[in-house]
Structures are given as structure tokens and as C-alpha cells.
Amino acid sequence: MVQNLSQKLHCLQVKSSPPTRFLEEKFISLLRSCRTSHHLLHLHSQLTTHGLIHNAYVTPTLITTCSLLNKMPHARKLFDKMPQPNTATWNAMFRGYLHLECHLQVVVLFGEMNRAGAVPNCFTLPMVVKCCGKVNAVREGEEVHCVVVKMGFMSNPFVGTSLIDMYSSRGSVGDAYKVFGEMHQRNVVAWTAVIRAYISCGDMVSARRFFDLAPARDVVLWNTVVSGYIESGDMVAARKLFDKMPGRDAMSWNTMLNGYASNGDIELFEKMFEEMPERNVFSWNGLIGGYARNGLFSQVLESFKWMLVEGGDVLPNDATLVTVLSACSRLGALDMGKWVHLYAESIGYKGNLFVGNALIDMYAKCGVIGNALDVFNSIDRKDVFTWNTIINGMAMHGHAADALSLFDRMKNAVVKPDEVTFVGVLSACVHMGLVKDGFSFFQSMFDNYSIVPQIQHYGCMVDLLGRAGLLDQAVNFVRKMPMKPDAVIWAALLGACRIYKNVEIAELALQRLIELEPKNPANFVMLSNIYKDLGRWQDVARLKIAMRDTGFRKLPGCSVIEVDDSVVEFYSLDERHPETENIFRALRGLTVILRSYGYVPNLVDVAQGTVMGEVLQTTTLTRYPTYTRQSCRDCGSKIRKCHICRKKISNSFKLFHG
DNA sequence: CTAGGGTTAG
């Protein structure tokens, strides 16, 4: 009874005349735990009724909460109504914009701060300096530098370091060093910043000198210099320093892992992963992504499965899923891709834009454009990647009309088309033979979107003219190109010459192709096929000798197929599989059945060596596939099996089990 | 209310 009464009294006291400080603290803690915009609006109105909406202590926290909930416009409205915001409130605005990466807003707002006569402090300046660097605001950056000096903030390590970073990001190492020299106290972060400045301009010698001079070195500084050596391509120096490190953290190991991967040293790459004392999600992504970067897509899937089994607490994240899905696309591993789709949703990546875009691409490349569309439609906030992927996917599937209508929809959405969009649009025109429309799209790239056409777009145009049979126009177009035509351009022309049996232009194209890539036997095969079509057997023989003299043999095209849980690669008449006999027996059986239904095989292309892989090689050229084949370590040849030194480069024929 | 280092898509 007594306790109850005192509680009531206490409540009354608080309600009638609460000490302001108490209320302020209460609201600050409520705002910090606020997680929804609904709750935020509620608190906002409460603050208004308590007359605390322009409070010096509460308002900064309110603004911070707005920014965390993606409500900066709301914060801005409130902020603009304040008669005289204090520095902490200004800072909350800067931090909010910085958090959302609205760097330009920060620079603009700082101008307003000066005009309003408000005074920045040591928290304001690093944020503003950083943003000047981000948006490349050179003049503003120098003005802020002057403010720093005038207000005596050069002694503040945060301010000084931010200035070093700014000058470093615009490539002015000299200015970065000058700031470093003028700093009153230099901690290890400042040393790291100046060393980073030398690394980013490629001066590893100076970077190393400063590293050796530094009074203290922590693990971040060590890692910075190791990755500097990697960036400069010096894996040996990176390794030497790595071995000398007094304490390595997970990032040290991952840095080396990625270094070996980007230098194509698969052996050391794998060894590095095996030796790692601890593996976080970045380590696994390093392994998976390293295989992907080196074109070893089966190993991508294999190591992903290994991660699921052996990763322990480490779960894949969006980066993992995207890499694995793109490997599925490259391999045509649809079953695996579908599984990854379900798995991604089960671990909470249903709404992830990165994953969604990768799924669209995977379904499109695996031939199920319907599923690609389903994923596309399920994404509500589509970005330029989403649109480009579906447009290119549609074009690739021959749904050119759909690709073009999607392009129309894209224009109505707020997403601005880019150069990749136009590759899809133009290749849709190629498929439909829309020469006129193609040219008008090509023209509108620059006129309406200020996109300067790249060589890919010129390639599409050559393809467009060539496939429409307008070979002379195509040659003229190539001659008038503003850049030097590359092999893809000439190959497109050569391909068109085969369709229309134009020997004269074919010979011209081949001549250019031989100059550009003397090692690629596919070019000879193409011309040889044209001669064959025309029955010019003497020329075929002559070309065969010329081809032999180059010393290179054409790589047989290969196919990949998903079997159970694995991806298997095979060539025409391949006999490497342990069950070759059974496979061929089954095939013979199938042929008998097919023939009994009246099927007559077309052996002409097979006889000419135009197996699937070659068709792919010639028809996908204009799409500039990013497919990279492993290069031979000894002779640099970009082939799967080096025909010069006869070494097998990647273990591409490999079954794996889940 | 403060800084420096890693991965992913067309």
C-alpha cells in the first residue's frame, strides 16, 4: 500500500514538472532503440508536444535515427526549420548523408554551414574532407584545408589523416606527404594513410621506405603494404613480407589468397587456403572467387559444396551466392542453379538485388528464360543490372521483340540505360534483322543518353549489316569506325561472309584477323569453310598448309553437361570418360531409335569439323563473351591444353560428388 | 558524434 502510493507520487511528479534533463535522456535512449519509421514518427510527435523538437541534445540523435532508417529527407525538413542548429546538429546531418554515401550533399551542406555562420569542429572537418575527396571537389577541398589550418586543427590526428586521404585519392602524393609532414602528432593511422598514398600511385619503393621508418606497425599497416606489393604484381615481395609478419589476422591470409588467385598461381592459391588457421566468409569467397576468376567453374561449385559441409559456422553470403550462380551460368548447371536459388531463399537472401540479378542471368544462360522472367518480375526495386540482364537474356534467346519492349519499360522506370543496355538492344536488332531500327538506336545512344558507343556496339552494327547481307556497307562501316577494328569486328564480318559466300571480303577480313591474332586457328577454319562451301578445294589445301605453318591447332569445341550432382565436360568423339563404352553404346541405341522414326542426321557440318563448339565460337563473338580461358604458364597461350608444350593446364575433366 | 584494410552481378 505504502509502496503503491509512493509510486503514484513519483509518477505524478514526473508528469507534472519533469526535469528537462531527465526527459532528454529518456528520449535519447528511446530514439537509439527505435527500429521502425512508424516508431520514429511517434517519437517525433511526442518530442513536438514536449517542446523538445529543436533541442540541442535530442535533435542530433533524432537526425541520426532518421538516417539509420533511410529517412534523410524527413531529417532535412526538420533541420531546415531549426532557427540556429548547434554544431552537433550540423554534424548529425553530415554523418547522416555520409552514411548514405550522399557525398555531394555533405559538400553542399558545408557551404550552407559557412553561410549560416555556424562553426565546424574537429568532428565536422574529417567528414567534409572525406566527401571532397569522394566527389573530386578540388577547390572545395582546398578551402576546407585552409579552414583547418586557420582554426588550428592540424594538431588533430583525425583531421590530418582525412586530408592525406583526400590528396591521395586525387593522386597528389606530394600534397599528401606535405600534410603528413605538417601534422603535429602522427599515429599509425596517419602513417598508413601516407603509405597508402604512395602505393596508389605505384611507388612501392617509397611506400616500403616509409614502412621501414614507421615507429609503430600494426596489422593493418602490414596488410596494407603486403597488398600494395600484390597490386604491383610482385607476389614474391608480398610473400616475403607476409612471412615476416609478427601477427597475421584473417585478412592477412585472405589478402595473400586473393593475390595468388589474381596472379593465376593456382597451386600456391590452393596451398594458401589449406594453410589458413581460420576461415571466415571472406576466405571461402576468396577460394570460390579465385577459381571463378581463373575460369575453373567446376572447382567453384566443388568448393562451394565443400564450404557448406566444412564451413562450420560460416554461412555463404550474397557474394558467395552470386559467384556460384555465375559459375552455374557458365557451365549450364541448371539443377545446381535451381538448388542455389532455393538455398539462397532459405538463408534469407530472397530480396537481395545482387542475388536476384545473378539468378536472372543464370536462368537465362541455362536456357529457361521463363524462370528468368519470374525472378525479374519478383524484384521490386530493379537497378540497371536487373534490366540489362533480362534484356540481354531475351535477346540471347531470340526473343528480340520482348527485349525491345523491355527496353521501353526500362525507359519508363527511373533507371537510366547504359552501354551494356545498348549491347542487348542492338543484338536484339541483329536477331530480327532490324537494320533501320538498329541504326536509330545506335544514334540515340549518344544523342539521348550521352553514351559514347564502344567497340562492342560497333561490333553489333557490323554484325547487323553483315547478317542482313549488306556486306559492302559493313566494310564501309568498319573503315569509318573511330577506333581500330579489333578481331571481334573482323570475325563478325568473316562470319557474315560465310553466310553470303563472299570470298573477296572474307579474304580481307582474314588478312586483318591474322595480323591481329596470328595464333588463333579458328580464323583459318572459318575461311577454309567458305572455300569448302564453294568447292575451292585447292584453296582449302593451301590454307591447311598455312595453318599448319603457324604451329597452332584449333581447340576442339567442348560441351558441358550436368550429371547427377556434377558437371562433365566432353568433346566430339571424346574417349576420356571411364564409361566411354557404355556411353557410346547408349548413343548408338538412341540413334537406332531416332532413325526408326525417320530422323536423318545432317553430317555435313560434322564432316567439316563444325561441331557445336565451333558454332558457338563464331556466333557468340559479337557478344564479347567475358569467358576467359586459362593461359599456359610456359608459353602464355590462351588454351585449355597447351599445344606447344603439350601440358594440360586445368583439370577440366573432373567429376565431383556432393 | 571520429579515421586506416577484403569478396559479389549485366
Automatic annotation (TrEMBL):
Q: What keywords sit in the KW lines?
A: Repeat
Q: State the SUPFAM superfamilies in the record.
A: TPR-like (SSF48452)
Is Repeat one of the keywords UniProt gives this record? Answer: yes
**Annotated Gene Ontology MF terms?**
RNA binding
Q: Does the keyword Nucleus apply?
A: no
Output the superkingdom of the source species: Eukaryota
What Pfam families has UniProt attached to this entry?
A: E_motif, PPR, PPR_2
| Gene Ontology biological process terms, A to Z | RNA modification
Q: Where are the PPR repeats?
A: 86-120, 156-190, 218-248, 249-283, 383-417
Task: State the coiled-coil residue ranges.
Answer: none
**NCBIfam families with a match to the protein in the record:** PPR
Protein name, per record: Pentatricopeptide repeat protein
